[in-house]
Design brief:
Blueprint: E1 12-14, H1 20-28, E2 33-35, H2 36-39, H3 46-55, E3 59-62, H4 65-77, E4 85-87, H5 94-107, H6 110-113, E5 117-119
Parallel strand pairs: 1-2, 1-3, 3-4, 4-5
Helix pairs in contact: 1-5
Length: 120
């Protein structure tokens, strides 16, 4: 019987609404983080951001609650797989957002994050 590889650490894609210092802070904690700025995805649609994250097997983090809630519901209704959507409820200082993200990243595996919508 072949065993599947367990994915422990959640690789993150930060959309363009997320402050770049958050990426730096997560990287200092050795998390795999890519931003929309890094890959030239500025001014793309939310759907394009989610689709990019899926192709890279990354959870996406955003402040855009309404659109990503709709996209999550659409993906689940159509039995499509994504690697997690993390919505930061309100704009708060980046240190607080980073702390909240780290709690999630330190307590949830990548496998557990699949098709999940989490609020931090």
């Amino acid at each position: 019987m072949a065993s599947e590889k367990l994915r422990l650490y959640i690789p993150i894609y930060l959309d363009e609404d997320v402050a770049l210092p958050i990426a730096g802070a997560l990287r200092k904690q050795h998390y795999d983080v890519v931003t929309a700025h890094d890959i030239g995805m500025l001014q793309h649609t939310d759907r394009a951001h989610l689709e990019y994250a899926i192709t890279q097997e990354r959870a996406i983090a955003t402040h855009n609650r309404d659109d990503f809630l709709d996209l999550h519901n659409e993906w689940i209704a159509n039995e499509r797989k994504h690697f997690g959507i993390i919505i930061m409820i309100r704009r708060i200082p980046f240190g607080e957002i980073t702390s909240r993200l780290l709690v999630l990243l330190n307590n949830v595996t990548a496998d557990e994050m699949e098709n999940q919508l989490r609020f931090v």
